Amino acid sequence: MKLVSSTPGDSPILTPLDTLTFRLEDLPRQLRRIIDDALQDQGLSRTQWRLLAYVLRQEGLTQTELARHLEIERASVGVAIDALQARGLIERSQHPSDRRVWRILPTAAAKAMLGSLREMIDEIYAELFAGFDESELAQLGNFFERMARNIKA
Questions:
Q1: Following DSSP, what letter does each residue of 84-105 receive, concatenated?
Q2: Does the pLDDT of residue 145 top 60, yes or no?
């Protein structure tokens, strides 16, 4: 498969790389929809789940740190934090050295909910990666990392 057409008139409307890239774009959209549907029963959005996962993994992250991890705006993170706090799943704690900053901590309710959330997400992942062995998954991860590096270059 040629990555780039060698002559101007040699380029069809859809190339094999177009087809591959379109599929690569479709998969995350499908995955988001499936995860959103599954989380709806728990009353969570995908963004809230991801935020909660980061807070459960590393207690005390700030809103700015969470925005960086989630790759969304601080304001959007603030909305998700407000919603999770209203549900009693996280709480804000004043930063010990900077009164302007709040650390985000999971509550006991969030920790209790983690098992069922983890099970639900793992079922989705099992379906997504069905038929892949460990070496294929490692290779796929390496391909994604290489593509990410290529795009950043």
A1: HHHTTSEEEEE-SS-TT-EEEE
A2: yes
